Amino acid sequence: MRQEIHSHLDTAELLHCALEASRTKDHDKAIELLKRCLLLEKQPATHLLLAAEYAQIKFFDRAIEEMQMSIEMAPTLWVAHFQLSQVYLVTQQIEKAKNIWQHLAITPNTPKYFQLFSNGLLAIIEEQTQSGLDLLRQGMQSNTENPALNSDIEQIIQVVTETAKEEKSVAKDSDAINKMLLSQYGAGQPI
């Protein structure tokens, strides 16, 4: 039924409606509209948006698949790489997340803030918590393009800092990052 309702909308209109549905946490509608967009025109950003919706409803395998498609289509869509690392972290695929962070950290074209975020997360995972937190803060200062990403990083900093104070255990820092990211997906916030 919805398919008929939206059959006369072009890609831009469908995308606009999908973003609005996502904003209001109407995930089924957003997914439906994004899939229709992809039928009309394959765009890496649309695959990434669909991946974000799948992550919100905890369809992590589909989120990974869509993010990988986005990266295949646009290898320099750095946010797709970074978000894929977050999904890998949430799904306990730590080595895959680390591989992405290492890739982002050493690739010359990668924006500086993604390099700093990646190096910071690598340091935290490798039990160098204070160094990692410093790098995350530097990344936030460097990032003037994506305020939502800075909010996500600020949440990571808060969780890791609180956990480090309470537990004095770096292993718990990784658990805290996982819990924070998983709660973000469950809360319907953008990744």
Short summary of the structure?
The protein is built from 11 helices and no strands. The chain has helices at residues 2-5, 11-23, 27-40, 44-56, 60-73, 78-90, 94-106, 112-125, 129-142, 147-167, 170-187.
**From the helix content, strand content and strand pairing, which structural class follows?**
mainly alpha
On the 0 to 100 scale, the average pLDDT is 86
Gap from first CA to last CA: 30 Å
Low-confidence segments, ≥5 residues, pLDDT <50? 1-6, 182-191
Biggest sheet descriptor: none
How would you describe the shape?
elongated
Based on DSSP secondary structure assignment, what is the total number of beta strands? 0
The proportion of residues in beta strands is: under 5%
Compute the gyration radius: what is it? 17 Å
Order of helices and strands: HHHHHHHHHHH
What count of helical segments does DSSP give? Answer: 11
The portion of residues assigned to helices is over 70%
Q: Would you give an account of this structure?
A:
This protein is an all-alpha fold and 191 residues long. It has helices at 2-5, 11-23, 27-40, 44-56, 60-73, 78-90, 94-106, 112-125, 129-142, 147-167, 170-187.
